[in-house]
Amino acid sequence: ELDRFRAGPATAEELSRSKENVKGRMVLALESTTARMNRLGSSVLSGMPLLSVDEMVERIDAVTLEDIEGLAQDLFAPEKLSAAGIGADQSVFDSAMEPLGVLA
């Protein structure tokens, strides 16, 4: 699945639907006074600029398929991932890791 995701993490239609979903949820979330205050507080504490809704929408709209593909390549590289398992049988964990070509 990681190889498939790295090769083609999204289609143009999926990206478009995702953008619209995020924008809609973001605008609805900003209607809450609590959410607005949390956003202001986070901005102050993190030292990040407070973006207007229009600026956030512009940034969301600017995301491309190439951006997602590059991020998938960086984040889902098997050599950069780690895994942990809890259980009595080490062989179960080893079997799960085998397709990735890594040693437990």
Describe the structure.
- It is a single chain.
- This protein is mostly helical.
- It is 64% helix and 0% strand.
- It has six helices and no strands.
- Helix 2 runs antiparallel to helix 4.
What are the main properties of this structure?
104 residues, mainly alpha, 6 helices, 64% helix
Draw up the topology in text:
Elements: H1 2-7, H2 12-29, H3 33-46, H4 53-62, H5 65-75, H6 90-97
Helix pairs in contact: 2-4
**How many DSSP H or I helices?**
6
Helix/strand-derived category reads mainly alpha
Give a short account of the largest sheet: none
Average pLDDT over all residues = 88
Work out the strand percent. Answer: under 5%
For the termini, the CA-CA separation is 20 Å
Give the helix proportion (percent range): 55-70%
Compose a concise summary of this entry:
With 104 residues, this protein is mainly α. The protein has helices at residues 2-7, 12-29, 33-46, 53-62, 65-75, 90-97.
